Amino acid sequence: MMGGSIMILGVIIQVTAEKNSTPLAQFIVGRVITGVGNGINTSTIPTYQAECSKTSNRGLLICIEGGVIAFGTLIAGPPSLTWRFPIAFQIIFALVLAIPTYWLPESPRWLLTRGRDAEGTTVIAALRGLEINAKETVLQRQIILDSIAASGYSDRKGTPLKACFTGGKTQHFRRMMLGVSSQFMQQVGGCNAVIYYFPILFEESIHQTHEISLLLGGVNMIVYAMFATVSWFIIERAGRRKLFLWGTVGQGLSMVLVFSCLIPGTEAAAKGAAVGLFTYIASFGATWLPLPWLYPAEINPIKTRAKANALSTCSNWLFNFLIVMITPILIDHIQWGTYLFFAILNACFLPVIYIWYPETKQRSLEEIDIIFAKGFADRPGGNSRLGIDDGVEDGEIGGDLGHRKGVWRGDRYVRAAMELRFLSDEEVEVEQRRYGLVATGNEIVGAHGGADVVGKDA
Predict the structure, then answer these.
(1) Alpha-carbon gap, residue 438 to 415, rounded angstroms
(2) Cβ(107)–Cβ(51) under 8 Å?
(3) Does residue 328 contact residue 197 with C-beta atoms inside 8 Å?
(4) What is the model's pTM?
(5) pLDDT tens for residues 421-455?
(6) Which of 167, 28, 136 minimizes the C-alpha distance to 450?
(7) Helices (H), 201-238
(8) Tell me, what's the pLDDT at 134?
(9) When comparing pLDDT for 66 and 455, which is higher?
(10) Under a CB-based contact definition with an 8 Å cutoff, are residues 29 and 13 in contact?
(11) Mean predicted confidence (pLDDT) in 257-275
(12) Are 451 and 162 in contact (CB under 8 A)?
């Protein structure tokens, strides 16, 4: 509600700018206010969706949100329209967001975190279509309460930012950096160089006429919007990790095609570069467009989810600004080298994703907590510290099946995600206790403590 209301205020300030006053200053102020509202929306909506969604459709719902970005780009408004209408049109969407939100409940995890157990239980039952006293409702409520207690977040009104920089069983810092890095890679991979400057790229790099460049820019946005829906159908089948990898390969090869076809400087070769730009936006729309909005919202634990997701969103907009500002300079100075630059960056993403990005497909948010606790326990000497007897000697990585078969599959958190079977609600509670994620007595694990410092067993 707040984000939508702030956006409406910012839009009104922009569209009421008049030539006889100080239009530039008024427009800048309006844009800043609109940006604040948009920042609130983009950092909180994925978190809300992740906490309210079922495991089976969480990926789909947040991918739909990400995919809508492409449709917004498509209808942003052709040059023939005056500038006021496309900007004022944002009010419609802000109203659609702000007004219905008044009747939406808070997420059950937020309510339970603040001790509002009755309301939280009611929301859990409503989201699952169950009775308040149903066994599944009670069990789900207890799992969330155990997760909250283990995080040290019980009866807290907020989380300090420094909590995002702690380690230990909960691995707050690692998980925050996974989200931040995904948004960083989305932007520096070259998406907005193509989205914002597509007609300019065609005109200056491929030497098309201004009219043809604008027409192809419109076609590009249609392709973008069409492929943005692809993830809706495959996100819960293929998973996040595979889509990250496939999308990176598609983007990288597309950039290779673009720069290699621009090197000869001939009109015939430039047509291949045009194909590369289209395949790039198709790959991006199907994978990297929605994934960085989904991944931070589900990979971060309840204690730091809001703060970490906000930092991820901040990363997105900061590097969005950077790429938009430097792209014209790069094209002017190094020409086809601009696309070589983006191709190299995409190639660098592959080992990062393969080594450090765990799969979260079909996992509840509490199962994801267990994955990181398992990864932490699987470090050399880690099992004895958690009191877990799994038949693995200290110093040996527990459950390292890939290592034993001679196949290295990434770091221990990636392997933990591969090795941990899908758990029922009852099994989640058992595994929470197994890995020390449930507080016992006066002990609250996973909160700020001596062991939860970045760099120590992190």
Answers:
(1) 23
(2) yes
(3) yes
(4) 0.84
(5) 999 988 998 998 898 887 554 443 433 333 343 44
(6) 167
(7) 210-227, 230-238
(8) 93
(9) 66
(10) yes
(11) 87
(12) no
Segment 327-332 long-range contacts (CB within 8 Å, at least 24 positions apart)? 327/192, 327/193, 327/196, 327/197, 328/197, 328/200, 331/197, 331/200, 331/201, 331/204, 331/205
Task: Enumerate residues 6+ apart whose C-beta is below 8 A from 347.
Answer: 252
* Segment 7-12 mean pLDDT: 93
Spatial contact of 270 and 261, defined as CB atoms under 8 Å apart: yes
Neighbour count for residue 99 (Cβ, 10 Å): 12
Q: 22-34: buried (b, 16+ CB within 10 Å) or exposed (e) per residue?
A: eeeebbeebeebb
pLDDT tier at 199 (50, 70, 90 boundaries)? confident
Contact by Cβ (8 Å): 146, 432: yes
Residue with tokens 């204690």, as numbered in its chain: 303
Q: How far is CA 51 from CA 154, 228, 291, 298, 416, in A?
A: 17, 23, 17, 8, 23
Mean pLDDT of 133-155: 83
Residue the block writes with tokens 């449709």: 71
Distance in angstroms (rounded) separating the CA atoms of residues 457 and 380: 10
Question: If you search the block for the tokens 């997105």, which residue do you land on?
Answer: 316
Are 224 and 281 contacting, i.e. CB atoms less than 8 angstroms apart? yes
Q: State whether residue 156 is helix, strand or coil.
A: coil
Mean per-residue pLDDT, 300-329: 93
DSSP, res 21: S
Q: Tell me, what's the pLDDT at 330? A: 92
Distance between CA 51 and CA 144 in Å, rounded? 10
Q: Which of 51, 167, 159, 164 is nearest to 112 (CA)?
A: 51
Distance, in Å, from the CA atom of 157 to the CA atom of 203, rounded to the nearest integer, reads 54
Angle at 125 between CA 122 and CA 131, to 5 degrees: 100
Instruction: From 323, 239, 226, select the one nearest 281 (Cα to Cα).
Output: 226
- Identify which of 173, 164, 147 has the alpha carbon closest to the alpha carbon of residue 457: 173
**Cα–Cα distance, 36 to 2 (Å, whole number):** 10
329 CB neighbour count, 10 Å cutoff: 10
The two tokens of residue 214 are: 């604008």
| Residue 227 CB partners (closer than 8 Å, separation 6+) | 70, 281, 282, 283, 284, 285, 286
3-state class of 395 per DSSP?
Answer: coil
Q: How confident is the model at residue 408 (pLDDT cuts 50, 70, 90)?
A: low
